[in-house]
């Protein structure tokens, strides 16, 4: 029988045993939000995704103190742009609120949990970022 290293009691997210560079719902608690700070934004080219799907260009977030990166899907990318602007250079050092949304459609058509970024006032307050001004209705001259 081969020697097995000593184990330790573990009571955390089950994704720790997964051999992947990507942050997924298995790495986060499903019952609460997690605050993470963006260390850097990475542009990746020619990736082979799960199921052999090829992705020519992708953007991912590396977080301070975390080993895994979050691959940005359209939903999370749009939330970040609304929070911090479309220039990814403005995202470095910002704090985001991560959570797990249940029953999300995946690229392969199946449904399941997914990591999301909150785009609410709580997320803005973490960074002292003002909310975008509400659009104003056009007024007729002299309508005051």
The major β-sheet equals: 5 strands, antiparallel
SSE sequence, one letter per element: EEEHEEH
Distance between the termini: 87 Å
What's the gyration radius in Å?
A: 19 Å
Coarse structural class: mainly beta
- Low-confidence runs: none
Number of domains: 1
Helical content band: 10-25%
- Side by side, the strands of the main sheet go 3-2-1-4-5
Number of helices, counting only DSSP H or I runs of 4 residues or more:
2
How big a fraction of the residues is strand? Answer: 25-35%
Can you tell me the overall shape?
Answer: globular
Quantity of strands, as a count: 5
Mean pLDDT: 85
Note the topology.
Blueprint: E1 34-48, E2 54-63, E3 70-71, H1 74-84, E4 95-105, E5 111-117, H2 121-126
Antiparallel strand pairs: 1-2, 1-4, 2-3, 4-5
Verbal overview:
The chain is mostly beta strands and 144 residues long. It has one domain (20-126). The radius of gyration is 19 Å and the shape is globular. The protein has helices at 74-84, 121-126, and strands spanning 34-48, 54-63, 70-71, 95-105, 111-117.
């Amino acid at each position: 029988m081969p020697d097995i290293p000593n184990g330790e009691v573990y009571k955390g997210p089950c994704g720790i045993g997964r051999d992947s560079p990507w942050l997924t719902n298995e790495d986060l608690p499903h019952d609460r939000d997690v605050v993470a700070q963006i260390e850097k934004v990475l542009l990746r080219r020619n990736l082979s995704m799960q199921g052999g799907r090829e992705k020519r260009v992708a953007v991912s977030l590396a977080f301070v103190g975390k080993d895994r990166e979050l691959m940005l899907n359209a939903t999370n990318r749009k939330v970040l742009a609304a929070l911090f602007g479309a220039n990814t250079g403005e995202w470095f050092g910002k704090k985001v609120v991560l959570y797990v949304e249940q029953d999300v459609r995946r690229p392969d058509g199946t449904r399941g949990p997914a990591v999301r970024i909150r785009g609410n006032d709580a997320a803005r307050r973490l960074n002292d970022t003002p909310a975008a001004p509400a659009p104003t209705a056009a007024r007729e001259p002299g309508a005051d």
